[in-house]
Amino acid sequence: MKTKVVVWLGFILTAIGLAGLFAATAQQRTNAPAAAGDGQNSMQQMMRAMMSGVVPPGVKPNDLPAPASAGAKLVARYCVQCHNLPSPLMHSAAEWPGIAERMFQRMTMCSRMSGTGMMGKMGGVGMKGMMGGTSGNAMMGMMNVKAPSAKEQEIIVAYLKEHSLKSIQPGALPSPRTKGAILFAATCAQCHALPDPRQHTAQQWPQVVARMRQNMVTMGKTIPNAETLRAITEFLQDAARTKP
Ligand code: HEC
Ligand code: HEC
User: Fold this and answer.
1) Where do the structural domains in the chain lie, given as residue ranges?
2) Which of 22, 56, 141, 217 is most buried, by CB atoms within 10 Å?
3) Among 215, 232, 238, which is best to mutate for testing ligand 2, by the most ligand atoms less than 8 A from CB?
4) DSSP E strands: which ranges in 13-129?
């Protein structure tokens, strides 16, 4: 019990220290005085930067499909509290419910931790589930995380599924035994389900593959060599959608 509190305090102090450091650097960079509430903001910014390896940067609220819909607005509100804004295209309709559920549980846990009584609850809740072994989770507890209501959760899941990545079973690929198909299946299902080649035209695929290469850099995956990427791109172009 005592040791738990000590470890906790360690995490929290580290988090506060890091946030202070980050705020100071951010301030130096912009040369602007800190506005009220900046502590919270810079903590979130730092968190997102630290978490670029799980959700890469680059998606803005207006880039979301149907940006004016209730689902897009809820995603843009709740899903940027710990990491960059995730695109619904990052996962297939089959993958999203499980991932969203994991995120909802985290948000609920963190929202209970933040605010008053955090210290009092530390012993009771237990470190394991809450911390997941990283000081990042301790920071999440301090960021005043809000959790969506049950109704909002339903809207979020429906939105993510509706605008999800179109996936395909490896066996359903055209000419699944060719070198290109095999490299594609091995390379392109590391972060999400295997994408259906028919969701883009031959003209569109090279750009998408180039962006995925960048995602692999950001997310710390092994980068395929140029020849492999060329074989994958050619395979995708052959199997692509023919209508523009
Ligand atoms: C309380 C902090 C927090 C919030 C809020 C949060 N996430 Fe996450 N998210 C995490 C953490 C931590 C990870 C890395 C560990 C993991 O994958 O579970 C992560 C990872 C992810 C990943 C990458 C992992 C994967 O399986 O691809 C996706 C996608 C994601 N979150 C989507 C979402 C969505 C959608 C929302 C809003 C409904 C959301 N997150 C809100 C903490 C959060
Ligand atoms: C390192 C993780 C990672 C790997 C490996 C990866 N992707 Fe992705 N993929 C993402 C992320 C993140 C998104 C959502 C953000 C985006 O679109 O850049 C995404 C989204 C997509 C989308 C939907 C977006 C769109 O523009 O249609 C397609 C299609 C896609 N990936 C194809 C591929 C292909 C093809 C490969 C193999 C060359 C691949 N992915 C490998 C991370 C990855």
Assistant:
1) 2-162, 170-238
2) 141
3) 215
4) none
Distance of alpha carbon 186 from alpha carbon 198, whole angstroms: 18
End-to-end CA distance of the chain: 63
Which ligand has an atom closest to residue 206 CA?
2
- In whole angstroms, what is the distance from residue 49 CA to residue 106 CA? 19
Across the chain, how many H-helices and E-strands are there? 11, 0
Distance from the alpha carbon of residue 173 to the mean position of ligand 1, in angstroms:
30
Indicate the SS3 state at residue 82: coil
Question: How do the pLDDT tens digits run along the chain, 244 residues long?
Answer: 444 444 444 444 344 444 444 443 343 333 333 333 456 678 888 889 999 999 999 999 999 999 999 999 999 999 999 999 999 999 999 999 999 999 999 999 988 876 544 443 444 344 344 434 455 556 666 678 999 999 999 999 999 999 999 999 999 999 999 999 999 999 999 999 999 999 999 999 999 999 999 999 999 999 999 999 999 999 999 999 987 7
Distance in angstroms (rounded) separating the CA atoms of residues 40 and 139: 11
Least distant ligand from the CA of 138: 1
103 lines ligand 2 (CB under 6 A): no
Instruction: Kindly report the protein residue whose alpha carbon is nearest to atom 37 of ligand 2.
Output: 188
| Residue 221 Cβ contacting ligand 2 at under 6 Å | yes
Give, for ligand 1, the residue of 82, 90, 92 to mutate: max count of ligand atoms closer than 8 Å to Cβ: 82
Q: Is 240 exposed, middle or buried (0-12, 13-18, 19+ CB in 10 A)?
A: middle
Q: Which of 134, 143, 145, 144 is CA-nearest to residue 10?
A: 134
